[in-house]
Every structure is written in C-alpha cells, then in structure tokens.
Amino acid sequence: MLSIFKRDYFKSATTYYQSQDYNKALQYALKAIKTDVDNIDKIMLLGNIYYILQDYEKAQTCYEKILSLDSLNICAQINYADTLIMLRRYKQAEQYLPNITVKENRLFMQAKISFAQEDFISAEKAFTAYTQLKNTDAWAWNMLSQAAQKNQHYQTSLAAALNAVDVSGGDDSHHLNLSYTIYEIAVEKGKDFVLPTLQKWHRKYYDNPIVRQSWNSFFPVSDFCKSDSQYVRKIFDEFSDSFDDTLQELEYAVPTNIAQIAKVNMADSFTKNISVLDLGCGTGLCAQTLQKIFHRASFVGVDLSPKMLEKAETKKVYKKLINDDIETYLLQQKNKYELIVAADVFTYFGDLKKIFQGLYRSLKNNGKIIFSISALFGADSMWQQHLSGRFLHHKKYIQNLLIETGFSSEKFEHCVLRKEGGNDVSGWIVWATKK
Ligand SMILES: C[S@@+](CC[C@H](N)C(=O)[O-])C[C@H]1O[C@@H](n2cnc3c(N)ncnc32)[C@H](O)[C@@H]1O
Question: Which of 116, 206, 317, 352 has a 20 to 30 A CA-CA distance from 360?
Fold first, then answer.
C-alpha cells in the first residue's frame, strides 16, 4: 500500500530539469539513481545535469558508465566526446572519435575539436562537410559561420549565420549571432557588403525585435530613441550565463571607475545606512564593487532581464531586485535614494530627458548620480545610434540636460569603458548632485 505514496524521484528530477532548476534536479537525480545504479536513462539525466552545471568530470564519469553498459549508445558517445572537449582533453577526444558509430556525428565532433583548439581552417572544412550531410542542424551552421568569419570568408559566414536562423525556425540565439556577425563584418568590410544579407533577414523576420534593432542601426529613424524592451530582455537573458566572464575578458572597467569616483567624493557616506539604486543592475557587478566602500548601504537593483536578475540574486548584495524598465520605475519614485548609479545602461537609450527627470525626482536632496555614457565625438547631433545598436551621447548634450533638469557640480571623467574587437570603447563617467 505504502508504495503508491512513494515519490518518483526520476520524474521529479526530469520535471526540475525541464524547468531549468538544475540544482533541484540534481538532488532528485542522485536519489533516483541510488536504488537503480545501472539504469541508463537515469545515468544520462544525471550526466546531463552535471554537464549543465559545468561539473564536467562527473558528467564524464556518467557517460563512461553508460558506454560501459552499452558502447553503441549514440547520445552517450556524443556527450562523452563533448565533455572531453569541455575539459580541454583534445587529444583524448580525438582518440575517441573512431568509436563514434555514426559518420556525421564523428564529423561534427571533429569540427568541434578543431574549433575549440582555434584551428578555424579545419573547423570550417569539417563544419562544411557536416552541414552538407545534415543541413538541419542550426548550431552547426552557427559554428560554421563563426569559423568562416575567423578565416575572413565573410560571404560564407553571413550565409551560414542566416541558414542557422532559418533552420532553427527563427530561434533568438541564432538571430543574435547573425546580428553580431552583420555588425562585425560591416565594421571590417563596410555597410554595402552586408546589406543583401541584412535585407533578406529583415524581409523574412521584420517582426523580431533583434532584427528590428539591427535594421534601425543601419537605417536610423528619428523617432527611434530607446532600445526596444523585448530586444533588451532577449539579448541579456541570452547573455546572462556568460556575462561576467565575457566582460572580464573585455576588461570592463565601468563599475571600478564608478566606485573610484564615489570613493573620492562621498567619504562622509561610507559608514552611513544610505540607499543606493543600481539602474540596469545586470548581474550585480556594480553593487558588488560599491559594497566594498559603502559597507552599510542597502542596494536596490532594477533590470529588464529576469535572467540577469537571477545572476544578481546569487551575489547576495541587494536588499531588493526589481524586474522593470528603468524609465517606468523612476517615474514612480520620490526622494528615496542617496545615490543612483547606472553602469553601461544609458547606451540603450538615445533621448535621456525622461530618465534624467526621473533621476532627479527619485533622489533625496543633495543626492548623487554616477553613470557612464558611450562617447560621441565630433558629430552635430546630441546622440546617435551606432551600428552595434547601442547609442552614443555627446558630452555637451549630457551637460545641458543635467543643468536643465536641476543638477549641479557635474564632473566628467574620460575613460576606456571596455574593449571591443581589440579596440578601446571610449566613454565618460559622469557625476552630479541634486541641488
Ligand atoms: C551592459 S549591461 C550592464 C549591467 C551592469 N550595470 C554592469 O555594469 O555590469 C546593461 C544592463 O542594462 C539592462 N537594461 C537595458 N535597458 C534597460 C531598461 N530600459 N530598463 C531596465 N534595464 C535595462 C540590461 O538588461 C542589462 O542588464
């Protein structure tokens, strides 16, 4: 009788896995396997959970175990080779390749090994051969596009990135890849070179926010003065897992520069219980840096991307995290914060008038704002949309807007915000006080 009340651990593990709660899935998968150590479905699930949690050693052990039970298990063969790549055991992965029974799987893994070792010539060859055998694999087209771009085979790269979008049925990861590819190749070869691909893409997917944003950065229209919220949510949800690592590679300096300005100018607040608002807080890099100075401050973070907020939560710095548009959020606040920061966020807005009015209203008297802007030099306009889709602002525009809104004692510090394609991205860190 009792057994009908017994929890089905495998079912629970599968449900948590499908809803992407991998830590919970792991708990149940471990329980499920305890009494059924040779069950291939259960070992596979456990291996896949370890793989996603980036515990590749344990994932490898699971796939090895499956192969010892059934050496022809195709999924285990692929996952085993893939795990060796993630562990950077390329030689071992290559030696394992002849054991992969299906020819196209062997080719795909060969291509991945070459790609991981940055042998882009071999990777392009192998991905080309693979996509000829199996032209419905979107990730293979995506990786072919990346390899071809590295080899400066730009037409192949653009065509493969567009194929990835098409065969995936318009999946956002592939739209994003195509938007970066178009932008980067336009920087190398000029706008005209990428135009036919951009037009084809836009004709078919004009409704997608990523496509619209890309199109608008090539053909700006005057009433487009803020990045589409759906676009922002999509790119940052997609980017959230790799955001911190990528920005470290790009030598992202904005949180440190903001903290430096706060350190020099706000010494009287270091030990006070001040309220700090982190606009477009992302994964929490800025509050994490500021907390080292303002030990007793309470931080509130606002961001459009739920996945970025999930990452911010894990940093355990914020008293509150709010999923909202910063313009909407600021409209509802009054005399609340001693300090408001915005690191690399205003670059998603062209016109900043409403934002500055909201900042002013949300601050307490004598409150401070510190934010970064991406610099626009030389142009006549106040702000401009860049081919990357981001907005650049003229220093004069920000100066005038600050004064118009009622801020005083503004200071501008010129700095390198981060790298992009090996070049410096130039900007300003701006600091001002509510009169
Ligand atoms: C480049 S990231 C910077 C994140 C963080 N401030 C940092 O320095 O690491 C930009 C962030 O701004 C958020 N963002 C952009 N536009 C926004 C908007 N209108 N409202 C709320 N968040 C926005 C994005 O979701 C993303 O997390």
Answer: 317
Q: What is the CATH number of the domain that holds 143?
A: 1.25.40.10
105: containing domain: 2-163+172-177
Q: Quick one: which of 206, 240, 236, 212 has its CA closest to 224?
A: 212
Sequence-separated contacts (24+) of 128-131 with Cβ below 8 Å = 130/104, 131/160, 131/163
Q: Look up the pTM and report it.
A: 0.84
CATH code (residue 285): 3.40.50.150
Last residue of one domain, picked from the residues 152, 177, 202: 177
Please say whether the beta carbons of 393 and 375 come within 8 A.
yes
Task: Report the pLDDT value the prediction gives residue 5, as an integer from 0 to 100.
Answer: 54
Q: Are residues 140 and 280 in the same domain?
A: no
In a domain, 190, yes or no: no
Which is it for strands 391-393 and 383-385: parallel, antiparallel or unpaired? antiparallel
In this prediction, residue 1 carries a pLDDT of 44
What is the whole-number distance in angstroms between the Cα of residue 215 and the centre of ligand 1? 21
Contact 240, 313 (CB under 8 A): no
Strand order from edge to edge, sheet including 363-374: 318-323, 298-303, 275-279, 337-342, 363-374, 423-434, 407-420
DSSP string of 206-257, one letter each residue: TTSHHHHHHHHHHS--TT--B--HHHHHHHHHHHTTTHHHHHHHTT--HHHH
Please choose from 290, 345, 349, 373 the residue to mutate so as to test ligand 1's pocket, defined by most ligand atoms within 8 A of CB: 345
CA distance 127 to 114: 10
Encoded amino acid at 420, one letter: E
Q: What per-residue confidence (pLDDT) applies to 37?
A: 93
Q: What is residue 6's predicted lDDT score, i.e. its pLDDT?
A: 60
Query: Does 417 fall in a domain?
Result: yes
> CA-to-CA distance for 340 and 201, rounded, in angstroms?
39
In a domain, 46, yes or no: yes
Residue carrying the six token digits 């610099």? 375
Q: Which residues line ligand 1 (CB under 6 A)?
A: 232, 236, 254-255, 280-282, 285-286, 302-305, 308, 325-326, 343-345, 348
Within 291-433, residue ranges assigned H as helices are 306-314, 326-331, 353-362, 395-405
- 218 in a structural domain: no
Query: Which residue's C-alpha comes closest to atom 27 of ligand 1?
Result: 282
Residues of the chain with pLDDT under 50: 1-3
